[in-house]
Design a protein that fits this description.
This protein is of the alpha+beta class. Helices cover 31% and strands 34% of the residues. It starts with a strand and ends in a 7-residue tail after the last helix. It binds coenzyme A.
Length: 194
């Protein structure tokens, strides 16, 4: 898939699948993230081998990765992970990260919407988002989309500095997610110029 989108400030972006040939672009994108934001990601995205491995995982059919590009630079990265386990086959885990200069312009919402479309195609019924407690913006965007906080596990994960952090698990029924996405898009002024 390839889609052209327009952010709230008029920036044109292209949303498409991530490929192995994007590795250099992706490493450049991760290197521009502020250390404070990188700290709470589940893997060390400055490690090229790990990042390459993650792209290759898309070949398993359980992981889907999308990127948004402005000009030729990646400015957002999103993933939908389906569980390989039988008892969680109805679930899809969502992850999004946007470059700082492009935040608050609707980019996060665009990525979530495209991942939502993918999830529907894959018959996902329940969306899951996991984050560390300091990832406040992520909690806000997911709450806004109708996700509920289901569980907080104290000191369950370690951030990239090695410090233990609380893990928050949020879930949302896929149908409710569409209601919120639809509401967001019909409400937003910028959507009319797309
Ligand atoms: C979460 C993230 C992807 C949001 O990206 P974004 O492009 O800024 O999101 P949008 O512009 O689409 O914002 C959508 C809504 O989310 C909320 N939101 C986004 N960032 C926010 C922030 N820093 N503080 C409060 N609310 C925020 C707002 O309600 C916003 O709607 P509004 O602008 O109409 O008020 C971005 O903040 C990010 O990359 N964070 C670091 C990585 C991370 O925590 N990822 C989540 C792990 S699952």
């Amino acid at each position: 898939m390839e889609k052209e989108e327009t952010l709230k400030d008029g920036t044109k972006v292209l949303v498409r699948e991530l490929h192995l040939r994007d590795l250099d672009r992706l490493m450049r994108f991760y290197s521009t993230l502020p250390p404070e934001g990188r700290k709470y990601l589940r893997v060390d995205v400055k490690n090229r081998e790990i990042v390459e491995q993650r792209i290759k995982l898309t070949k398993t059919g359980n992981v889907f990765r999308l990127v948004a590009l402005a000009e030729d630079d990646i400015i957002a990265d999103g993933a939908l992970e389906l569980s390989g386990e039988e008892w969680r086959k109805h679930q899809g885990e969502l992850r999004v990260i946007a470059a700082r200069p492009f935040q608050h312009k609707g980019l996060g919402m665009i990525m979530v919407r495209e991942l939502y479309f993918l999830a529907v195609k894959k018959n996902v019924e329940q969306m899951v988002a996991k984050m560390m407690r300091p990832q406040v913006a992520a909690q806000k965007i997911f709450r806004k989309l109708g996700f509920r906080e289901e569980l907080l596990i104290p000191d369950y994960v370690r951030d990239q500095s090695g410090k233990k952090q609380d893990l928050i698990i949020m879930t949302c029924n896929i149908k409710e997610l569409w209601n919120e996405l639809e509401h967001f898009y019909s409400d937003s002024d910028w959507q009319r110029c797309r």
